[in-house]
Each structure stands twice: as C-alpha cells, then as structure tokens.
Fold:
Amino acid sequence: MSLSPQFLDELRARTTLSALIQRTVPLKRAGREWKACCPFHQEKGPSFHVNDEKAFYHCFGCGAHGDAITWLVENNGLQFMDAVKELAAAAGMDVPASDPRQAARDRELGEMFDIMAQADRWFQTQRGDDALGALRYIAERGLDASKISEFGLGYAPRGRGAPRLLDAMASIDVEKLITLGLVKRREEGERAGEIYDTFRGRLMFPIHDVRGRVIGFGGRIIGQGEPKYLNSPDTPLFDKGRTLYNAHRASPAARKSGRLVIVEGYMDVIAFCRAGVTEVVAPNGTALTEAQISLAWRMADVPILCMDGDKAGKAAMARAAIKALPLLEPGKSLAFVTPPTGQDPDDILREKGAETVQALLEQPRQLVDVLWAHERDAGPTDTPEQVAGLRARLRDHVRSIRSRDVREAYGQAIAKRFRETFDATSEGVTQHQSGPQIRSRPLNERQAFSRPRGPEASQAQKTIRRIGLSAEIERAVLIGLLHFPDLIAMDTFRVFSGPEIRRVAQQLCDNLIMNPVRTEEDLDALLDGTTLEQDIDKATWGGSLPFSFGKPVIRSQDADKARAELIQVLANLPKN
Structure:
C-alpha cells in the first residue's frame, strides 16, 4: 500500500513523540527537549534526545535517529504498516485503504481483535470456587498479584453449572467464536452440533502479537486431565508456529540489552521476568519453528535457547539446532544453555535465586558444539564404520546450510573437532585424530592409516626423494590431493616445506571433509581468497611437470593415470 506524504506528515504531527517513547524509556526534561540513556546501546550518560517540535529522536552516541514510525519499527519490532496503523488508531485517523475489499478486511480483523480482548477480560474475572485450584497453583509458583496482572493470567471454569464463555459472549455470532477458537462444535455422537467452550478447567495465558493485542490463548490444566497444555487453534489472528509468547514485551527489552532468551513454556517466561530477564520468549507449545527463529533474529542476532535439563529438553535443543542450520547467515546463529538435569528455569529461580539464572545465561554454548555433541553421542564410535557414520551425518547437516560462507566455516570447525577427537595413530579408533580422514572410496586398514605406497620409484621420483620438493611440485601435489582426497594420510602435510603452504593445505583439506571437490568451480571456490589463488597461475600447475595430477581439471579417461602418478610421488617424498 502506498501512503501519501501528506498523510504521514499529519500522522507524525498528531503524535507526541515523547509520550510514545516514555511508554518504555524514562525521559527527563532538558529545556525544550527530553533526554535519556539510549535504548539502542549500552551507555552510562544520557545521549538520547527527543524533540517534540521537530518530531524526531537522535542519539549522539550510536547515531540512532528517527520519528514515531521508526521508533515502533526499531524499538517494538513492528512492520511499517503495523506501526502506521497503531499510530493512526491512537491519533483517531483512518489509514487509507487500497481498495474496498481491503477496507472490509481491516474492519473484520478489528472486530476479531475486539472479541479476543473481551474474552481475555472474562477469563481474568473468573475467581469463583472453581478457580481455587488455579489460585493455589499460582501461589505455589511464587507469583504475586502484580505478575498475575502483568501477564493477564485468568481462569476458564470447568463442569456443568459453571460460568461459560459461550454464555458471556452470547451477543456475538457463534460462528465468529468458532473461527477464533474460543468455542467448538461437536461433530459426532448423540450430542453432535452442541457448542461448548474450548478451554475448561485451565489456567489461562493470553498470547499477544508484537503490537500487544490478544490473538490467542494457552491453557494449563488444573488437576487431572490431558493435554497438560492446550493452545488456541490456528485462526485468522493466530498462527502458533509464527508467534512467540511475550514477544511484545521482549522485543524492546532485547533491543536494549542485545540479548534474547528462548525458553520452553509460559511459566518459564514469567520465571525469567521475575529474575530480571525481561527479554524472554517461548514457542507456543510446539518445537521451535523456522518462522519463530526468523522472528527471534529480528530481536537479537544470537538468541539463547534455555530448555529444561532433562532428556526431552536436550533433544529439543538438538532439534532446534538442526532446524536452524539451513537458515544461518553470517552473524546470525543460536546459542544454548542447559540447566542441571531434571530442572527447569523456574526450579532454579525458586531454589537458587535470580543470580544463578543470570550466571547461567553468561556461559552459553555455540550451535556447532551442540550439533557436534548431539551426533557424537548418538551412538558408539568404536569402529571405523561408526566413525564414518558420524562423519556422514555431520556432513549432511553442514551441507544443509544455504550460506556458502557459513557452510565453509562449519566444515572447517567440524574438521577440527574430528582431528581433536579421533587419533588414528593410537591403538584404538576412539582416541584423538590429528588429520582429516575423508575417503572417496572404502580403504583397507593399511591405506587408511599410512602414506600410500606406489610402484618402484622412477629416476624422477628418486630425484624428488633426494632433493625434496620445489615450490611448483608442492603446489602440484596439493592440487592432486584435492582431486584425490582418499589419498590424504595422517602424515600428508609433513611433506610440505613451508609453514604457509602447510597452513593453506591444512585449511583446504579440512574443507574437503564437508565439501569434496567435484568440478573446476568447486576447486576455484576452495582456493578463493587464499595465497594459492593470489600467487599461482593455474595454467602452470602441470605445464612444466611430468605429472598429470596437478592440472586444474582431470579428464575421466586420465584419472587412473593421474592417481597412480600421485601415489608414486607421495610414496617417494621425504618427510620434513
């Protein structure tokens, strides 16, 4: 939708910027302006200024600058049109509709939001005898009246004769209530067609959009019953896979702190807020989705997942790590913290206090470490076959990363962990390994753990063995290994004379573990930005040498010959 400059100017003129910003940032009068510590970066002195006359804010520390619309976009995480609509509603202005159908759609959505707000108020007023169990549960979890009010906790009565939401909202078309998931219609049995409340006998948690409007509910059963938690179904307002509980409060807090915490459930969110960590959200009773990860990245670059310390919580972390892999971008990732086994964040808060919760968040684990540990611990690694299975699983994960830069970095990180974990020179396999062991074809034990041996050395190979490697031969050997990675042995890199080419060779061959060379483009990608690309003319890699393995591209009919020559040269090279 295109909005005229005149409309936007009038919208800004009708909005008192300082009043808008003071909803979340305490301002102090400074002459004709207002001042505060900047909400967009950490600082001790107030460099954030708000000017109502000019209708803009500006930070002299970090350069943040904008108007009322920008404020809602940057601080509250709203989309542009959502910010405009919120300001227009507060200013008593109608946002121009692009066509009559859109105007009708906006009116319908407005009615739905009003219905959800009415239902929310009704749940919060239910305090009869039937609600005593919910009140006891709240008290046991240490919630006082302020937190009950802040999070809008309510109760959905149960049983025959108890108050019903259906009756309280009798003036509203029942089909609209069904559409919003507040009531249901029985489809089968003797009572088919009967309308009944969706939520009964449950502690109610309202779920809001980023503008703070109620769009759905989560209900925890009080007493016996299943499921333990019940959420609103997907509706025109609510998509549980694209919504994060408490996002409307967490978004401005996360932008100020630079941190976002993702926990498992509604009570965990409230527990963190009680501990002073207000930049906290939770998925709505489901595993973390790609859409929720993307929403979290709008609040912080590396959100911290804090799941329960039990087996299910650890499995949830691993699933989240794997789900995030294809979405990773430079600077965008996930981090993880794990409470002690059997505990959740609320347990830690009640037993050890807020300081322990804060300390837990200061030592998160990287996504790559969670991924590595999950696959490493998925089964034994006592045989070469089991190690190969671990490598194959990790390779599949790394290849799922769409960003080339991140994918290559993960390949190198996983290769490093293989070297540090598996040492094929020891008696067992599951010790520590000092070099890459990727193979393009199965190898026998001798091939796997020793340098390849070729036929009787020719005079050329004897000369190489006697005088060592020239720079040109070193580079040709390296390119040959890129073509035939199954020939990389544990001591391969000792043949190179200089530390620079050793470093580059190690780096490139680490990458081979996750990204085998298959085409000339693959080779170019591996060499991109390295010393080899800068200093070597690829046209000379095999030009003056009697070997075919150093060519950028090897034809299929020449592959056997090139492989045999490389084995022969490697077999007769001296170790440095």
About this structure: Residues 113 and 213 are 7 Å apart (CA to CA). The radius of gyration is 32 Å. The chain has four domains: 5-91, 100-238, 242-372, 448-571. The longest strand covers residues 214-221.
